[in-house]
Amino acid sequence: METHEEFFHTIAAKVCNKPKKISAEDCFSQTSNSLCRDHRKCRLHEKTLEQLKYVHQPAIENTFLRACPGSGKTEAVGLKAAHEIKSWPHSSKGIAVLTFTNNAANEIAERIIQFAGVNGTVYPHFVGTIDGWLHGYVANPFAHLWTEFPGKDGDRSLRIIETGYQADWLNSFKAPTLYPSGAGKFTPIYANNYYLDAETDLFYIRPLGGRQWIAHTTLYNSAQFTKFRSDKAWLTTEKFYEGFRDTKLKFWKAGFCTYQDIESLTYWILDGNKNDVTIMLSKRFPLVIIDECQDLSWVQLSILKKLQEQGSALHFIGDLNQAIYSFKKVSPYKVKKFADNNSFTEMLLNENFRSTQPIVDLCGTLCTQGTIAGCQKNKEDSQPSCVLFTYSPDRLSDLPQQFSDYLTTNALDVSKSAILARGKTLIGKLRAGINENFLKNGELPVQAILLWNTGDWDRQKTALQHMGKYIATTYFSKNSLDSRNQHCPEAITSKIQWRAFLAALLKACGQNSDLVDHDMLWSNWSKKFREHFPKIISKTAERQEFRLSSITFKYQCPRGKANIRLMDDINGVSEEQEASNIRITTIHQVKGETHDATLLVSSPDKRGGKGGHWSEWLDDSAVEGEHARFAYVASSRPKYLLAWAIPESNKEGIAKLQKLGFKPI
């Protein structure tokens, strides 16, 4: 089989029962197949030859589908899974389709259902996150064989304790050594705040309130800990290690573990002398498809290797240039080595339907990507695809409005665009002036409560946005926020839970007679809000089982409004102004997204050296090329316009970026 038509007819006959002798055009116009509903032509026929070749690739053959940005990877994964499911011969063996986030898993599941029907995502198949799969099929049912957890009332299920969680009962699981927290102070290290890395046999510790994981050897040799153990000859590296090990074993034996523990436990179970569990899992899932394979860690690769050795076929789909999780011990070089060493058949998706050719070419200067065709057309022939903004470091907060104005002038959708930066400090500076032309933060709750009580759904959606922004900036001030989902902070993993909490909070506020009295002066309402709101939000959080940051609640009457009646003031605020506010977030937050336009903002200098400066994006040798991959991921998001922003004083940088294809604005 060689041609597009041959592949199409074979696949369509299986997926949607298309008669072999009928053309794609006739099938589309003469039948009412739900698969093509809301499409202008046959959904399968529009797939590229490369996509169809992968769908037709033998399931039993280890395969690596290298997919460039915008190549229809998710569609190909969904169609491939559906193609296999449609003729799957087993009733008790299934296909595992794995990815790394719930949102990505839901997207794939939706495609599979569209192509194969609702049975495509249920037993015997599995579509979900790799963490959920390992937990459900290995760690939860079999970990007790390794941890010796006796269970309670016949239940040997693991109880997952989140890192950073605090409770008095955790005092029973404190490591015998302390963590130097500065100024001569030391804090306890609980079993849920460290894990054993199966690759290196090192314990990685994240102290209470900390963000970084550090190896136990690094802690042992730190200046503060060296001073602490200077009069403790017995505290050798071996004793130090044993203390962490024994505490963690006790933790496991009691039936507890962390998310980080799950992978290590799974690896040890499958790596044991008795490979019965490995054989069972391999027989249960003869085909394992891994989306976003570039994000596989060493331990995940090792687990998959165990399954492959027992007969499972592996299909990797992803783009090695989009590996940006080194802090999770992920390396694209390990993924490539795994595929090479295990004789994977390599296939390509090299047509980018998202971006224009100049954007695709610019991405090619950041990371080696081969020949990629950019299939998107400019909205206007005269409009440049790659532009360069410059800024004065003391006027960084002006950039969002400048970018928004540029988009409006060039007929690009502000609501479908984003500003990206590496690091929350820089994001905070960009946000500093974003609300100056819109609602002030203190006005948000008033407007939200008023709009919510109208009962009009469109206005209530705006109310959720307003209250979401107020709560996020008040209680989650250090978090990156997702403006597309009611400004949901990154600390909240469930957008649905966040929205439900906001709705419950607005409902409770709307039932308080003082907070809905808009005949009050601003000064009086502010006093009532300070009195009632902390109680309302506390009760709502408790009922919704929602955890808020602990803060001292403060609220001030907006400046210059003390003697103005609320009703005379808030009706004059335009809802359109808030809606035009552009999204500002981190590079990691937009992975997998498509924008009309994207602005990537460089930090003013290289202090910190964490990949936030434009010069680091052009150096593909630094930190195994991850800094270049940051820029690659960000720069491959837009359809029509890619913009970078660097300090205006850097004339050399401006000239260098011009040579790469950026047009100064």
TrEMBL record:
What broad class of enzyme is this? Answer: hydrolase
Is Aminoacyl-tRNA synthetase one of the keywords UniProt gives this record?
no
Concerning InterPro entries, the annotation shows:
DNA_helicase_UvrD/REP, P-loop_NTPase, UvrD-like_ATP-bd
What are the protein's UniProt keywords?
Answer: ATP-binding, Helicase, Hydrolase, Nucleotide-binding
| PROSITE patterns in alphabetical order | UVRD_HELICASE_ATP_BIND
| Gene Ontology MF, one | DNA binding
Binding-site positions, ATP: 67-74
The processes (GO biological process) annotated in the record are: recombinational repair
- Enzyme Commission code(s) on record: 3.6.4.12
Q: Which residues form the UvrD-like helicase ATP-binding domain?
A: 46-356
The answer to whether UniProt assigns keyword Endoplasmic reticulum to this entry is: no
What Gene Ontology cellular component terms go with this record?
Answer: cytosol
Q: Which Pfam families does UniProt cross-reference here? A: UvrD-helicase
Please identify the protein, giving its name as recorded. Answer: DNA helicase-2
In its UniProt entry, the species of origin is given as Candidatus Electrothrix aarhusensis
Q: What is the lineage of its organism?
A: Bacteria, Pseudomonadati, Thermodesulfobacteriota, Desulfobulbia, Desulfobulbales
